[in-house]
Amino acid sequence: MTEVLLDWQDSERTETISVPAGETILDAAAATDIGLPFGCRTGACGTCTARLLSGDVVHHRPPRALKDRHLADGYVLLCIAEPTTDTHLAVGATVQSELVPNPWK
Amino acid sequence: MSDAEQPAESETHDHHDHDHEGPGYATPQAAIEEAEPEQTAYVMGLHVGQDVDAPDFLAVVDVDPDSDTYSEIVNRVQMPNKGDELHHFGWNACSSSCHMEGLERRHLVIPGQRSSRIHIVDTKERRDPELTKVIEPEEVYDHDLSAPHTVHCIPDGEILISMLGDADGDLPGGFLELNDDFEVQGRWDPPGEIEMNYDYWYQPRQNVMLSTEWAAPKTYYPGFDLDDVEDGKYGQRLNFWDWEAGTVEQTIDLGEDGLIPLEARFLHTPESTHGYVGAALSSNIIHFHESDGKYHAEPVIEFDDREHEGWDMPVPALVTDILISMDDRYLFGSNWLHGEVWMYDISDPSNPRKADSISIGGYFGDIEQVQGRDTVAGPQMLQLSLDGERLYWTTSLFSSWDNQFFPEEAENGSVMLKADVDPRTGTMSLDRDFLVDFGDLPEGPARAHEIRWPDGDCTSDVWQ
User: Which pLDDT tens digit goes with each residue over B159-176?
Assistant: First the structure.
């Protein structure tokens, strides 16, 4: 069991959840009635993207929505991510929107 | 070549003197003449991609100007799960089901673009529709397909859905078939006929289907990245199928002229081989038609990129939706980033002539206010009344792309707007009395996407 601090990027809100071994952060949050954004639940869509502020996670499947530069920047997909240490994550819908900026701007 | 010069009636079809027994209308002209003005609109409403912890929904919108609740959302059917990204949807039957006595145009088939979940909604009570069945994603993945997009009924009462990816959100896409009890029948096409998929339209009397190309779901889901365009990860081809055989007969590579070919529309006249595709990124309208046994395609309308003050690169119009009026006289479209809706006269299909346009503000032009409400994104999904006199549109494209290009849409929600169209003079005017505000809903602001009418519409009805 690891402790995960969820930190909503655009507000003061934080929550701490316990994630049992073998479970994803998205499922553990849902089990405690904490709603996080998600879509495909298979690592393809990136709707559940969060950013690792400290700690480590492993992805249960290839995180296909994330490019190498995103992985290098600490982005993770909560639908397939399991924490391996106590973890602090930036969460909320705006994290996903950081992945690809407006290319014309 | 005009339609009048086309080879007359196909020898394989003999539908012209029959009594019309099934759902829909005998001809496009009958749809125009017999349909009552629309009173109810079904609109996809979304919370996906926002910090609103609620499922997406089907909105029932009152579009009857004589009603006390005109231009209001009068009911909603919430989906049982969150995270679907409801996107495009369709009817279990349309005018192509003309021999299916007993079949009714009554059930909406509503896929989740991100979840790959498929919902069936019964609209027997038009203002009080009911969710009756859910096909879970695992059943779709079993056929190595995901990301359902366009839903058309096919003439024998079954339903075909274009699927943009394989079970992993990668390529190739394909087509999923449901039977008339809304059970997954299996894959319609031999796997590997196409790589990318998006929209499709079929013209049964010509035994042809056209499918277009977006990209692999894992490519477009997270957002639009120009590197992916440079890497060839976005589509630029039109695939013409043998409709009976379910095989691709001809592929036209449009090159840079056709980058991201999205909505595909044949003319409604069932004999016609003419139609259009909106190439979103290259911002061209591609006209296609058959002659000498082959399809030909070329740009006939080109929207120039525009310089945006202080930005690095000129911005494309991004043509995200097009539709053809039921009388095949006008082509309408939306330039999402430039913020314009437009209409072209297509009496001569190879030579469209601009009729009119309205700017509501996207990245350019003045941001229009309707009833005090700012529009926070350009016009996107369009729907036209069957008589061609009222054009409606919403403003959300796709949650992650909205967040990238019009982030205020997540905070303020979409609007549904309307223009009055005069088909005789070829003009449009924004109706400043009509506003459906998706920003003011109990769970929080919502996005609004595709629009459908209970009695069939210009973007779903096909004639056999």
Answer: 999 999 999 999 999 999
